[in-house]
């Protein structure tokens, strides 16, 4: 899965019909994973399960999660799926979006990101992240392309922020999201903490206009895969016609010299990003502050604590 030059695999796919979806997922994962054996490997699928509200569009697509799980199961891997939703548990959100039954029928174990461990970031800061994404042999990041009120658009890189469990995500917004904060840089510094990861980015049906919850559907018709989340995001920014410099995560990555920010230094496995002609994808013009208002932070924290108790 590793290469000195970031490799990005892009294929067109208009709908989530199972046969065509399974075929494209097979092509993308086969080439990105390098054809190795996965017999006995521990695979953790990390979707976007932000919350149940508008979950059919705000969260990862259930049939895509099943397709990815099936592919790894067919290779002999042991597959789990986990996340740390903004509200509720991974299991409750999966049930609300209609994904739990299908995954359970496949034998996929659902993992809540309750167990955490402390890691040191490259800049010396220490923080606690979920243990499960670091204990697996392969972490498979499965986000959806979404417009975002604070980041303009979020894709593969931002979805890794979900490995910061529970209330710690809200605290990151408070501690590092001010005008001169390092929120974007810290998310980028998270990526090396999960070295055996790849991202499968869903642009079949994206969210635009607003986000990450209350946006509108938009058919991009592209599924992409890469072991380099930054390169995959760069490719999709080109597909969507978005100026990458207007996106805080990409701009920070470019400023710090991360691999994957240049289209000229990406190896295209199937189609190049400029093959796709996508027009009309709308992102917010003015971004909201990353740092939550203190009252919002308190209200959100209380809700995060209370919701699992009320669901019992």
Q: Would you write up a description of this structure?
A:
By secondary structure, this protein is an alpha/beta fold. The chain has one domain: Rossmann fold. The chain is built from 12 helices and 13 strands. It has helices spanning 18-33, 55-58, 62-74, 90-96, 100-106, 132-135, 156-159, 167-176, 183-190, 229-240, 248-255, 294-310; strands spanning 7-12, 42-47, 78-83, 109-112, 116-120, 126-130, 138-142, 144-148, 152-154, 197-208, 216-218, 222-226, 267-268. Strands 1, 2, 3, 4, 7, 8, 9, 10, 11, 12 and 13 form an 11-stranded mixed beta sheet that branches. β10 (197-208) and β11 form a beta hairpin. α8 packs antiparallel against α12 (294-310). The longest helix has 17 residues, at 294-310. It is globular, with a radius of gyration of 18 Å.
Question: Which assembly state applies to the chains in this document?
Answer: single chain
CATH class: Alpha Beta
Mean pLDDT comes to 89
Number of strands: 13
Q: Give the tally of structural domains.
A: 1
Could you give the distance between the termini? 41 Å
* H/E topology pattern: EHEHHEHHEEEHEEEHHHEEEHHEH
- Number of DSSP helical runs: 12
| Biggest pleated sheet | 11 strands, mixed
Give the CATH superfamily: LarA, N-terminal domain
Fill in the CATH topology: Rossmann fold
The low-confidence runs, each spanning 5 or more residues with pLDDT under 50, are 304-312
**Cα-atom radius of gyration:** 18 Å
- Beta-strand content: 15-25%
Give the second-level CATH assignment, the architecture: 3-Layer(aba) Sandwich
Sheet/helix structural class: alpha/beta
**How much helix is in the residues?**
25-40%
Shape: globular
């Amino acid at each position: 899965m590793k290469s000195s030059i970031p490799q990005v695999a892009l294929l067109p796919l208009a709908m989530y019909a199972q046969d065509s979806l399974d075929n494209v997922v097979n092509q993308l994962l086969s080439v990105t994973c390098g054809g190795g054996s996965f017999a006995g490997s521990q695979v953790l699928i990390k979707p976007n399960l932000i919350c149940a509200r508008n979950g059919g569009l705000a969260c990862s697509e259930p049939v895509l999660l099943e397709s990815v799980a099936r592919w790894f199961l067919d290779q002999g891997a042991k597959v789990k799926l986990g996340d740390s939703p903004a509200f509720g548990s991974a299991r409750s959100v999966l049930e609300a979006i209609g994904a739990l039954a299908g995954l359970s029928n496949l034998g996929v174990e659902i993992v809540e990101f309750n167990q955490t461990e402390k890691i040191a970031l490259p800049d010396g800061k220490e923080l606690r992240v979920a243990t499960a994404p670091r204990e697996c042999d392969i972490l498979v990041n499965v986000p959806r392309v979404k417009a975002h009120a604070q980041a303009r658009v979020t894709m593969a890189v931002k979805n890794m922020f979900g490995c910061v469990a529970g209330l710690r995500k809200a605290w990151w917004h408070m501690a590092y999201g001010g005008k001169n904060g390092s929120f974007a840089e810290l998310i980028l510094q998270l990526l090396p903490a999960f070295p055996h990861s790849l991202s499968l980015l869903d642009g079949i049906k994206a969210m635009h206009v607003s986000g990450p919850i209350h946006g509108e559907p938009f058919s991009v018709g592209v599924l992409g895969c890469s072991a380099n989340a930054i390169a995959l995001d760069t490719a999709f920014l080109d597909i969507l016609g978005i100026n990458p410099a207007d996106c805080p995560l990409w701009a920070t990555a470019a400023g710090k010299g991360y691999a994957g920010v240049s289209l000229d230094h990406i190896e295209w496995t199937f189609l190049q990003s400029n093959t796709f002609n996508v027009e009309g994808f709308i992102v917010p013009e003015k971004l909201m502050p990353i740092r939550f208002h203190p009252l919002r932070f308190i209200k959100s924290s209380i809700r995060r604590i209370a919701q699992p108790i009320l669901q019992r």
